[in-house]
Amino acid sequence: MLFAIGTPVGAYIKPWIYDWGVSPDALMISAIDFIEKEFNFKKLRKKSLPDILEWDKMIICDSGAFSLLNQRKKIQIHYEQLKSVYKILQNDSPHVIKLSLDFPDDKILENYLNLQSLEVMPVVPYYDIKLIEQILQYTPDVRWLFIGRLVPLMRKKSYRQSITKILPELTAQLQNIEPNFRQKHKIWALGIGAPTLLSWLPQYVDGSDSSRWRITAGNMILLPGGGERGVGKVTKWTGTKTRIKDGKEKNLVISLLRHILMVVDNFSAIDKKIEAKVPKTKELESKIKDEPSAIRIKELEELLSASGYIRLYFNYLAALESFYHFLPEI
Known about the structure:
The protein is α/β, with parallel strands linked by helices. It folds into 2 domains: 2-217, Queuine tRNA-ribosyltransferase-like (TIM Barrel, Alpha-Beta Barrel), CATH 3.20.20.105; 222-324, no CATH class. Helix content is 44%, strand content 12%. The chain has helices at 32-35, 38-46, 49-53, 65-70, 79-92, 108-114, 129-138, 151-154, 159-177, 181-184, 212-215, 248-264, 274-277, 281-290, 297-306, 308-324; strands at residues 2-6, 26-30, 58-62, 97-98, 123-125, 144-148, 186-189, 207-210, 220-222, 228-230. Strand 9 and strand 10 form a beta hairpin. The longest helix has 19 residues, at 159-177. The chain is globular. The chain starts with a strand and ends in a 6-residue tail after the last helix.
């Protein structure tokens, strides 16, 4: 299975520019960043998308329909703008995978067919099998089928139960549409590459993505294997109430911080102001490298709560660790 990291186009923090010894298979961006932000669109006219992202591997560009849905905007206003973005990508970065516009529901097929000259891949709600059949009638050799509308399920407490029921049912239905479906077409589950699902997903899909590493970085860290841990003040956000536990969790946190220090030498390379916020940063760096057993959880929380930059790097690697399992145990 391929794993993609979701990122805003204009993100200041780009952890993938460092050689961590591991990297995602792809970056997932949204065309909404070009549609809503004129400076991004102007930049795209001057530079290729790989140059903007500083990334030369697989890139997937979503239409931005989900963002527009969340913001309750009229998608029709942006259709021509989306075409403009995709035309530039088609000319300058033809290897970028462009996703069709999957909103409103009654125009998904129409949008897909209208954008075929730009070589888009179809996005279909998980519950619309008939639409998948229609798409395959028009484009029987379509390489990727992107399954949408799964992210809202992730917001429910019982999301794992929902996802683990829906995807097996969906893949069974796809096999009924066409024998050996997954040998002919690849399936991408949009937005549900959460750490708790990453080891399970490859049974049913060929790719997934997640932006969880950025979403949690506001005031939490992402724990490899699943869950968030609060590192700053406890807020009404549920994740901030669960703290790093001694033992395995603490060792995982130290392992990730140690891996960061193997590449960037010191935390000041990530956040120049970190020593002013945490006066004992150098002492803590020394412990992380040479005396992990001497580190207290309170020290880890102090470091991680002090810098959003460090949390972003940490969460990026935590997401990769959840899928690739590259860290040695302490």
